[in-house]
Amino acid sequence: MTRPPTAAQRRVIDAADPVTGRLRGTEAQLAALVKRGLAFRHPRPPHDHFLTPAGHRIREEAEPTAPAEAGASTADGVFAARIGGEAEAPQPGPARAREVHSAWQGLLELRRMTSPDGAVDRPCGWERTHLVQAAALALEAAGHRPAGPEPDAPGYRVRATPQPEAVAVHEPDLDALRACAATLEGAGWQVGEHTEPRARVRYLLASPRRA
Question: Global pTM?
Answer without folding.
Answer: 0.66
